[in-house]
């Protein structure tokens, strides 16, 4: 039987041989991105340490608490349904305006319907800058 299109078979065979490399790259690249921390301005929030003067600072999507030399960074979204939290300085807590969940300034849940504490975010300090994200 005469082979109708030998080029097509060769292309298909080469493609099948390349699949493990394509699949490996598709798996390894996200793994690399997950494990590496890069100070990339478009992916990170960068804050000069000199701006952190009060005990609680609010920035887009984060609360930063500075206590002596310790720094704590929390996601400013409620762990119930993701509403933006407000700071209640008088009572020293974060309050959800949507469903009345409350969290202390350490991120611990005080009152529900939220079932868990606030999410702490990773950060890095380099050259007097705080990199979040």
Walkthrough of the structure:
The chain is an alpha+beta fold and 133 residues long. It has one helix at 6-35; strands at residues 45-48, 56-59, 62-67, 70-75, 86-88, 93-95, 102-104, 109-111, 123-126, 129-132. A four-stranded antiparallel sheet has the order 5-6-7-8, with no helix packed on it. A three-stranded antiparallel sheet has the order 1-10-9, with no helix packed on it. A three-stranded antiparallel sheet has the order 2-3-4, with no helix packed on it. It starts with 5 loop residues before the first helix and ends with a strand. 12% of the residues are buried. The mean pLDDT is 78.
Largest sheet: 4 strands, antiparallel
How many helices does DSSP assign?
1
Largest beta sheet: what is the strand line-up?
5-6-7-8
Mean pLDDT: 78
Over the alpha carbons, how many angstroms does the gyration radius reach?
24 Å
- Strand proportion: 25-35%
What distance separates the N and C termini? Answer: 62 Å
**What would the principal axes of the Cα set say about the shape?**
elongated
Number of strands: 10
Helix content: 10-25%
Order of helices and strands: HEEEEEEEEEE
Quaternary state of the chains: single chain
> What structural category characterises the helix and strand content?
alpha+beta
Low-confidence runs (pLDDT<50, min 5 residues)?
A: none
Quick tags:
single chain, 133 residues, alpha+beta, four-stranded antiparallel beta sheet, three-stranded antiparallel beta sheet
């Amino acid at each position: 039987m005469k082979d109708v299109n030998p080029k097509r078979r060769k292309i298909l065979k080469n493609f099948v041989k390349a699949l493990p490399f394509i699949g490996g790259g598709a798996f390894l690249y996200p793994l690399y991105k997950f494990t590496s921390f890069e100070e990339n301005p478009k992916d990170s929030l960068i804050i000069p340490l000199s701006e952190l003067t009060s005990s609680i600072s609010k920035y887009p999507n984060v609360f930063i608490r500075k206590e002596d030399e310790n720094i704590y960074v929390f996601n400013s979204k409620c762990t119930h349904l993701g509403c933006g939290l407000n700071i209640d300085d008088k009572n020293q807590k974060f309050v959800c305006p949507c469903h009345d969940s409350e969290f202390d300034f350490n991120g611990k849940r005080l009152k529900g319907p939220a079932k868990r504490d606030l999410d702490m975010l990773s950060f890095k300090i380099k050259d007097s800058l705080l990199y979040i994200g």
